[in-house]
Amino acid sequence: MVxxxxxxxxxxxxxPAELAAIAAAVEEFLSGYxxxxxxxxxxxxxxxxxxxxxxxxxxxxxxEDYLAYAGHPAHLEMIATHLTPNMIARSALQLEF
Length: 97
Hints:
This protein is an alpha+beta fold.
């Protein structure tokens, strides 16, 4: 199994409605994508200062499944439309478990 974790820091002036639109776009893509085992995403709870604003965790059966997801045109479009214009930083990793 491969887990993909992505953390996003958004621009400081992002309002709650914009964050809700981002979450809806992520949910729409993930819920319609075949090839993943499990996906969890959401906004930071704000319990610690300095955290990133949003996280996406997606599990795949194999590296090949992850690579197909990473390069999928709908995934790239969702990133370009909803995430990139609003983020100031991103961190990610993939791990085997």
